[in-house]
Amino acid sequence: MQKTLFELVNEVQDEATFIAFLIALSKDRQTCRDEWQHDSIESFLEAAADWGQESVNGLTHYEKPDNPWKRCAQMMYMGKIYE
Hints:
Helices cover about 65% and strands about 0% of the residues. The protein is built from 4 helices and no strands.
């Protein structure tokens, strides 16, 4: 069974798993475009950055990881869904 993006983002630990996540994120954009909140790269990156700023100290249901690869992957993932 193929893993979801959410599962993949939580498995990111290093450069190789980050790249694998980015490939999956790109494929998700191609196949599930209707699930994305943003139509342009500009708005996607803005959403990722906004969520990154909002969560820099963690959130109620989110504990910021120590691993920078995982943190970057999480911000990219949130660029997909954060409004």
